[in-house]
Specification:
single chain; alpha/beta; Rossmann fold; 2 domains; seven-stranded mixed beta sheet; two-stranded antiparallel sheet; 12 helices; 9 strands; globular; binds S-adenosylmethionine
Length: about 300
């Protein structure tokens, strides 16, 4: 019987040889190998290095082989293989109904959106726009425990998963779900904080993505007009929906340059993301209104 340590070395080698892509919530092949071993052995994520000396249980080997087939042959993202994803220390149910949670907006929320959130108290109303499985809105509900949170998405399947995650994270008393096309269902001047990770991958980029992305809903990734169509529509309508001191935090990832090319006179504020990731910006309600009034948005 081999030890966890020996299994880990073997698994790392196999995953490396299979040339898997790690970009769906795991930083490295080593991290994926650890998660696979712990899941196969039905152990919690918090373990000490002592475990490396322990024997890898026989019964776990069959489970591990099944998971490896999904990961290496079908190139299913690990979070879909495991059926769960972790973001900001919270565990979410995760399957192909929605994107694997990984938005760097989570890091901005962990800082309570400071220094960008400058109103006196915390936000009362938060909307997770394009919520997918609901991770960002649920994190917001933990960071702002007095806030009411609305999760919105156009996709019923994603909303079904979001609803399961609300139950799982026991936030049901303060979070609701609503199917809507962007911000169309929201009243004027009704939201203090919007967090949004809309689809932003251009048609050209879609053809270049590693095979793992093909398992995610296409409608969660692709956007027209070089990836900027939904982001621009959202920026224009956010000015209407946000309250006076309101703030929009949004992600456009690799499409940041395309957005700047499309709106060349808008002075975007890009957030420095010490925990990794790129293409997250913030805009206050006042800025959005000013840009619209100046005809540059
Ligand atoms: C990039 S995923 C983000 C999911 C989640 N917020 C996250 O960070 O993991 C984008 C989401 O936007 C949704 N979506 C696409 N078009 C939309 C629209 N016009 N209005 C609302 N949601 C839309 C998709 O269904 C998908 O769930």
């Amino acid at each position: 019987m081999s030890s966890f340590g020996a299994k880990l070395a073997q698994l790392t080698q196999s995953l490396t040889a299979a040339d898997i892509f790690c970009g769906h919530g795991y930083e490295s092949i080593h991290d994926e190998a650890v998660a696979l071993l712990l899941c196969a052995a039905e152990l919690a994520p918090e373990q000490t290095t002592d475990l490396l000396e322990h024997p890898f249980p026989d019964g776990a080997s069959t489970r591990l082989s099944q998971m490896l087939r999904l990961r290496m042959e079908q190139r299913l993202p690990l979070a879909y293989v495991l059926g769960e994803a972790w973001l900001a220390g919270i565990r979410f149910r995760c399957d192909s109904r929605a994107l694997v949670p990984r938005s760097p907006i989570a890091g901005v929320l962990l800082e309570a959106c400071r220094p960008w959130w400058c109103a006196e108290g915390p936000p009362h109303t938060v909307v997770d726009l394009c919520c997918g499985g609901g991770s960002l809105g649920i994190i917001a509900a933990h960071i702002f425990p007095a806030a009411t949170v609305l999760l919105t998405d156009i996709d019923e399947q994603a909303l079904a998963l979001a609803s399961e995650n609300i139950d799982l994270t026991r936030t049901v008393d303060r979070i609701a779900c609503c199917r809507a096309d962007l911000l169309s269902a929201l009243a004027t001047d009704s939201v203090d904080l919007i967090v949004a990770n809309p689809p932003y991958v251009s048609a050209a980029e879609m053809t270049q993505l590693p095979p793992e992305y093909a398992h995610e809903p296409r409608g969660a990734l692709e956007a027209e007009e070089a990836g900027t169509a939904l982001a621009v529509a959202m920026l224009r309508d956010a000015a209407r929906v946000l309250s006076r001191d309101g703030l929009l935090v949004f992600e456009v990832g690799e499409s940041a340059e395309a957005l700047e090319r499309r709106l060349p006179r808008v002075p975007f504020t890009w957030v420095d993301l010490p925990q990794g990731g790129s293409g997250v910006a913030v805009a206050s309600a006042q800025e959005l209104q000013d840009w619209i009034a100046a005809g540059i948005l």
